[in-house]
Design goal:
By secondary structure, this protein is mainly alpha-helical. The protein contains 11 helices and 3 strands, in the order H-H-H-E-E-E-H-H-H-H-H-H-H-H. The chain has a 3-stranded mixed beta sheet with strand order 1-3-2, with no helix packed on it. 16% of the residues are buried.
């Protein structure tokens, strides 16, 4: 009987201590974790006479929020797919796992979702225009032409008119990796093939590939500096290369010429 009584008293004391601690954290507006801070923020903006904090906390828990990702790359064609944080780990195992539902927002995918969100739909159309333009023109012109066409078609018009320069600059930096990887490969492949064919040597093709990549890198950096009036350091940062790498590639091309 004494053991049972002791256990009951310890349980009651533990609950009281935990309740007191949570109450103090809540009163101090510090929160216990990101979700607790979020819940407290929602509770604080509710009008007078709203349900208590416990009721609000329980209601938000019932909503079961989910974390989703919007994907506009070119490697995946599925409408939706699941991604795991562990896929990014260098090793086979990790100490944490995050599972997200990913929605493909490339134009032509998940049409129902895009139709419900005009802004997202406009963004998907803008990205599609940029990629189509890249088949015929350099990156800065491709972005400029896409912005002009979107404004003409009343796609994100107000935003693009007000923030045109920022959109063009950010688009070039954001999409440059995708563009540069594709263009440098294609240009290098073509240059290598033509040089190898002309010289009749296989090594000519490999050298041509490397030369083509270098020339394209130099062209993109210098075009960004000229068109947007930015420094060499910022242009290299936007293209994800170092200044030293740019100088080395340029010196090699000068020697080749």
């Amino acid at each position: 009987m004494q053991e049972r009584t002791r256990r009951i008293l310890m349980t009651i004391c533990g609950v009281l201590v935990c309740g007191f601690s949570v109450g103090m954290f809540n009163f101090s507006a510090l929160g216990l974790d990101p979700f607790q801070v979020f819940t407290h923020g929602i509770f604080m903006i509710l009008p007078a006479g709203a349900p208590g904090f416990g009721t609000v906390y329980a209601a938000i828990n019932l909503l079961m929020p989910r974390y989703v990702v919007f994907y506009n790359g070119l490697d995946r064609r599925e409408e939706t797919f699941t991604q795991y944080l562990s896929e990014s780990f260098a090793g086979d195992e990790g100490c944490i796992e995050v599972v997200v539902r990913t929605y493909n927002i490339n134009y032509g995918h998940n049409g129902e979702l895009l139709e419900k969100c005009p802004t997202l739909n406009g963004y998907a159309k803008f990205v599609s225009m940029v990629r189509e333009n890249l088949e015929m023109m350099e990156l800065p012109k491709a972005v400029e032409h896409a912005v002009t066409e979107c404004i003409r078609q009343d796609i994100l018009k107000d935003f693009l008119v007000a923030q045109r320069n920022e959109v063009v600059a950010m688009s070039i930096y954001e999409y440059n990796e995708e563009y540069a990887m594709r263009v440098t490969y294609e240009d290098g492949e073509t240059a290598g093939y033509m040089r190898g064919k002309k010289e009749g040597k296989e090594e000519g093709k490999e050298e041509g590939k490397e030369e083509g990549r270098g020339q394209n890198l130099i062209h993109n950096i210098e075009a960004a500096m000229k068109n947007f009036g930015i420094s060499l350091e910022k242009a290299c940062a936007g293209l994800d290369v170092t200044v030293e790498e740019y100088q080395r590639v340029k010196a090699q091309n000068v020697r080749t010429d």
